[in-house]
Amino acid sequence: MSRPNFDALRELHDCANDRLHIHSPTIQQALVNHQQERWVQEISESALRILDVCSSTKDGILIVKQQLQDLQSTIRRTSIGGETGFESKLAAYRLYRKKLRKEMVKWLQSLKGMKKKKKKKKAIMESERVSVVVDDNLVAVGNVLGEVRETTISIVDSLRSLLSIPRTKCGSSLGLKLKLMRMSNKGSVCELGYDEKTFEAVEMAIDDIGFELECIFRRLIQTRVSLLNILSPAT
After folding, report:
1. CB 205 within 8 A of CB 162
2. Which of 1, 30, 77, 214 could lock 83 by a disulfide, CB 3.0 to 4.6 Å apart?
3. What digits encode the pLDDT tens for the residues 129-156?
4. What proportion of the chain, given as a percentage, has pLDDT over 70?
């Protein structure tokens, strides 16, 4: 999957939020005259669903980072025979990683399901367009949210791939190797099949994902608030 153009998406989303803010009176008037509350509500709900996925992913990233950092610190001490309990910490990390990957599959299904529903709704909108004039600003915001959804899918998918890294080469013999290292007070990180640069690369990649998610999250909140403010006078 190609890397999304995050800079372009941020600029596009900012423009959409500006349109909602500047043209909110026009959109509110369109709601009154053309009964478009349903479209605003659906766009608002789409923003909320993407927000939920972003929020859950951010929480998962925080826990993964904490566990990775703890794991790195522990394995460094283990390599010189000064730490026990590494196996239990690694098992806890693997267990959480497995659980999070399962959750991500559900999030991806939810986001991809939105795309299918959008196609059906678009067909309905096209059939009603003769009698219902949809505000251009709403159309623009809906299109931007579609881009945001696709980018969020890409981010979650990338994180899911990252969670398969790092792998140790020791497999079931890891515990025995750790025990021998502690007894001899010798050993290196590389002997465990652990590459510190790999851990650092994974952390950096996760940091990048977290930053982009935060940017999307903040802009989605602005979108959601603007849409709710537009709906308030109409309800």
Report:
1. yes
2. 77
3. 445 556 788 888 889 999 999 999 999 9
4. 67
| 188-226 CB burial, b ≥16 within 10 A, e <16 | ebeebebeeeebeebbeebeebbebbebbbebbebbbeb
Q: Left, alpha or beta for 171 (phi > 0: left; psi -120 to 50: alpha)?
A: left
H or E segment at 195? none
- CA separation for the pair 200, 68 (Å, rounded): 9
**Residue 234, pLDDT score:** 47
Distances from the Cα of 67 to the Cα of 11, 21, 82, 134, 157, angstroms? 34, 41, 19, 48, 20
At 208 the pLDDT is: 92
